[in-house]
Amino acid sequence: MSANVSETPSVSVCESRSNAKAEMDQSAEPDETLCIGYGLEWVENVKDYRPGGLHPVDMFDMLDGRFEVIHKLGNGGMSTVWLCYQKEIKSWRAVKINKASQSHDDSPEIRIMEILKKDGSVLRSDSHVVMPLEIFWIDGPNGRHLCTVLPLLGPTLTAWRENYLGTDATRINNACYQLTKGLAFLHSRGICHGDLRPGNALMRLKGNGLDEFEPEDLFQMLTYPNRREVYTIEGERSAHSPKFVIEPLCWPELTKYISDDVAIVDFGEAFEKSSPPSSLGIPRMYAAPEILYGGFSPGIGSDIWSLAFSILVIRTCTTLGSTFCAPLCAMERFAGPIPPPFRQTAAEELYKENMRYGKRTGEMEKPMHPEESDQITGEALVGLTTNTTDNSGVHELELELSQELYGEVSAPGDDGKVHFDWIRYRLPETEVKILADLLSQLLKYQPDQRMRTSEILKHAWFKGIPEVVSIVDEEPVITAPEEPSSTAPSLRNHVVRFWESIRTRLPTGRRLQISAPLLVLGITFGVCTIGYRFLTAGVTYQNVRVIRIILQE
User: Fold this and answer.
1) So what EC number does this one have (predicted)?
2) Is 462 exposed, middle or buried (0-12, 13-18, 19+ CB in 10 A)?
3) pLDDT tens-digit profile of 304-326?
4) What is the spatial distance between Cα 530 and Cα 480, in angstroms, rounded to a whole number?
5) Poorest-confidence range of 1-5, 382-386, 518-522, 534-538?
6) Among candidates 273, 240, 268, which has minimal Cα distance to 142?
7) 412: part of which helix (H) or strand (E)?
8) Is 99 annotated as a binding residue?
9) 340-353: b (≥16 Cβ within 10 Å) or e
10) Considering only 38-42, 219-223, 249-253, 477-481, which range has the smallest mean pLDDT?
């Protein structure tokens, strides 16, 4: 089904809030519908706007009579987060609004906030933990929602690492140190985070952040948000959904206000170590064996396992596997064969996933049930033993850390402007061995055998990092625009990796033979992509485009 993109009249850059509101209200009625693939990045699923789901919020709404919504900061599976201005105190705040189904009086966020409120040290920036300043409740068409108010922070550590830290080993190491220090602070107070990962750490803003700016000033600095209208299948507005879904704020436009200071946030899965929950909602790739397969209760050791994979991701700027079996493969690769008490649960889970995959594709024979045979097909569960005594995990970590990496570096160009180039590099051998030693002591199957945060902070890896080893390449590097978008670097990273994986495996002569057709293919793809984005998304004040999203109730 094709979608008819409707343009609004061209307008100038907003000079006031009233002008911005007027722009948001302008929209032509598209005469066709779009059910899926609505051309936005990093937006919530409109199906979540239903009873028990997300609270509908539009720009310039007033929350709790105090917080005016100026932009969206982000969203997750359980909430949306909004950039709000509190006029009475002339300060910017981040307001997180939970789904109604995830809003409870005994929410972990409320409970942990009350515990740490008694400890004034959490207010210090060197704690590397940011707790909500206050909470309030909203009653809306989808239910009652818990709202938490936080000081305005910057982008996630994930985005900051990918887009700005490049190959700067000192800054990268410092980010990992601060993340570990924040976790140590929580553990020293008997608190487990439960969902530790780079995406749940934010970068602090410099000084007083954006408090020197009024909303009108901020409008001048930011690109107009890309947005889509939301209608029901009958072509009507719904009381359960907002008028628009919009893309989050573009942090690269505010880079000079962002510091390298890390703060751990999002305590929706946090708990006291003396009262562990039966399960946690952490992504599988960061989840410890006891979270995925049982055998032990979640606890401090579970956070340590998550920290290990967080450090690995931050240092190498790579993404972990997203397949169902990826966590199991990573466990066996870096920690050795999976032992009891996890073995049987892992085998049964793998069996069920194979069955589901076979039903979806029809391309697999019915797999053998683990009770029928100990020889489970696949790499993940072959050769299981109760204990491992070799150092295969350390060796595999060294291999992983020794891989060729890609980083973005900035340098002044002949035109006097700053340009961003991609370089290939490797971690120095000295660091590879030290970091592999650290990670191997965190990735233990027995939770009580994992190194504690107080010991981690004293490890040699945090004492000093040698410079990376650049890989000389006679071919030109890929150059990015002066101010790339928040998602562009990671996309280019994938393109570079794909090309290099082909190029490095070919003799020089074959490289010449294959370069021309690939170049033509790449240019064609780029033109098509730019054309599609031009037709379906307007992101400036001068060219605002809207499109209908169908909300099936």
Assistant:
1) 2.7.11.1
2) middle
3) 999 999 999 999 998 777 677 88
4) 15
5) 1-5
6) 240
7) strand 405-412
8) no
9) eebbebbbebbbee
10) 477-481
Closest by CA position to 179, among listed 304, 290, 345, 66: 304
Q: How far apart are CA 112 and CA 185, in angstroms?
A: 13
8 Å CB contact between 373 and 416: no
Residue 128: which region, alpha, beta or left (left: phi > 0; alpha: psi -120 to 50)?
A: left
pLDDT at position 484, please?
38
Q: How far apart are CA 202 and CA 156, in angstroms?
A: 4
Region for residue 166 given its phi and psi (left: phi exceeds 0; alpha: psi -120 to 50; beta: otherwise): left
* DSSP track, 455-516: HHTTSGGGT--PPPEE---SSPPPEE-SS--SSHHHHHHHHHHHHHHHHTTS-HHHHHHHHH
Whether residue 535 is predicted with pLDDT greater than 60 in this model: the reply is: no
**Could you give the CA distance from residue 291 to residue 281 in angstroms, rounded to a whole number?**
9
Rounded CA gap, 395 and 397, in Å?
A: 5
CA–CA gap between residue 332 and residue 419 (Å, rounded):
41
Phi, psi of 75 (to 5 degrees): -155, 160
Q: How far is CA 454 from CA 186, 440, 509, in A?
A: 11, 16, 54
**Tokens at 168, concatenated:** 């700067």
Give the pair of three-digit tokens for residue 345: 């649960």
Rounded Cα distance, 231 and 34, in Å: 10
| Alpha carbon distance 354, 482 (integer Å) | 46
What pLDDT, on the 0 to 100 scale, is given for residue 432? 96
Q: Tell me how far apart the alpha carbons of residues 228 and 43 are, in angstroms, rounded to a whole number.
A: 10
| pLDDT tens-digit map of 438-473 | 999 999 999 999 999 999 999 999 987 555 565 544
Work out the number of other CB atoms within 10 angstroms of the CB of residue 458.
10
335 is written with which tokens? 């920690």
- pLDDT tens digits, residue range 477-518? 333 334 433 333 333 344 334 444 444 444 434 343 444 444
* Strand, coil or helix: 251: helix
> Of 421, 428, 472, 49, which Cα lies nearest the Cα of 245?
49
| Residues 353, 364: Cα–Cα separation, whole Å | 12
How distant, in Å, are the alpha carbons of 11, 61, 222, 538 from that of 8? 9, 22, 19, 10
Q: Which amino acid, 137?
A: W
CB-CB contact of 388 with 341 (8 Å): no
Q: pTM for this structure? A: 0.76
User: Which contiguous run of DSSP H or E holds residue 73?
Assistant: strand 67-75
Please give the Cα distance from 420 to 411 (Å, whole number). Answer: 6
The owner of tokens 């569960």 is 381
225 or 246: which leads in pLDDT: 246
CA 108 centroid distance within chain: 21
